[in-house]
What we know:
Blueprint: H1 9-16, E1 21-25, E2 28-31, E3 41-42, H2 43-65, H3 74-93, H4 101-117, H5 125-132, H6 146-178, H7 184-187, H8 194-235, H9 241-275
Antiparallel strand pairs: 1-2, 1-3
Helix pairs in contact: 2-4, 3-4, 4-9, 6-8, 6-9, 8-9
Amino acid sequence: MATDTKQTASEYIQHHLQNLQVCRGEDGWVWNHCAGNFWAINVDSMVFSVILGLFLCTLFRSVARNATTGRPGKMQAFVEILVDFVDGSVKDSFHGRDRLIAPLALTLVAWVFLMNLMDLIPVDWLPFVAHAVGVEYLKVVPTTDPNITFAMSLSIFVLIIFYTIKNKGIVGFAAELTLQPLNPKELGVPMILSPLVMIFNFVLETVALLAKPLSLSLRLFGNMYAGELMFILIAMLGLWQLPLHFLWAVFHILIITLQAYIFMILSVVYLSQAQESH
């Protein structure tokens, strides 16, 4: 904690950046001694992600069941504005017809926003409560964990592959990877050299394809991790942290909203590209 005089500044920062982990050791399952273990599970990230996801589903279900055609309540009005905004963004960015895209976009922007919003909770509050019940480490912002952001981006990547094959077939997908940007036939490349051009295209297009989930995950993780680190540094000021925390939180609201929107809109754009033919 920030008031713990036994911790140095470096120890305090490292403590707040450490996930609550569980992994399989030689003597069974162990907690928080998982350094170098690839299969370590960040329990706090998973728990908060699931809790926020369930909260989101419950909230939207409640609004949908209690929706009225007359004068709507504040929550219904807010959800309707959000739905209209996402629907408009999808129509502008997704050049096709698919019933999954708009609900997916709504889920992404709302869920990512809620996970980002956890960053506004003062960094010592929930870890202090966890420490009181015997939990040594606790990170409450799931999007500061690259495992969470990579999991979401890999889900989008699977959908990209699915829609590409669905709309263009396996042959069309293979053609996208091998016949662009340099088409041997259009360039008049001799038949004997065509395989070399196709290999070059394959390497180039594979890198571009893999860059999509990588950019999605790292952009969100990097921005949220930097924001969390700023809050931790501010918390080290003791009582002087209050005005600075408020000022940074006000600015950070823009960041968490923008990052949720960027993740959503890029996912829609990538899925739209998967349906386009060249």
